[in-house]
Specification:
single chain, mainly alpha
Length: 139
């Protein structure tokens, strides 16, 4: 598993960034406080992971899903977190879906030639600096 318990802690930079986002700018947070928050966060994540794993095992599932995490939150009596997390998860899934749709270019019928055959034999015989394909259109 892990050699030291400290290996399970979240990175200090991530914890510091989250703290800065959560508190007003005029509030100063000591290094000890950041360390305590990092450790508490790590313990919470481990506790929630154990509860989610139990939820998955009850259903004979081998992989953890968001539903198992929601079940784990119920088990550790953090029901008030479930609805906001479901909302954020749905927002995240929509964002990922829209990014995927933007990456997949839709075929443009003006540039697509149906029934075209590329003459690979002649392409291989051409000099290496001129590798343009000859295309025959079948009707």
């Amino acid at each position: 598993m892990v050699e030291r318990i400290e290996d399970l802690n979240l990175p200090n930079t991530a914890v510091t960034r989250l703290i800065k986002e959560a508190v007003p700018p005029e509030v100063k947070v000591s290094a000890e406080c950041r360390l305590a928050i990092a450790r508490a966060t790590s313990v919470f994540i481990l506790y929630l992971t154990a509860a989610a794993t139990t939820s998955a095992q009850r259903k004979n599932h081998k992989s953890l899903t968001a539903d198992h995490v929601f079940g784990g939150l119920e088990e550790i009596e953090f029901e008030s977190f479930i609805q906001p997390l479901k909302t954020e998860l749905e927002t995240y899934r929509k964002m990922i879906k829209s990014k995927k749709e933007k990456k997949i270019p839709k075929p443009d019928h003006d540039t697509t030639v149906e029934g075209a055959v590329i003459d690979l034999e002649n392409l291989a015989e051409q000099p290496s600096n001129d590798k343009t394909a000859q295309v025959e259109v079948l009707e």
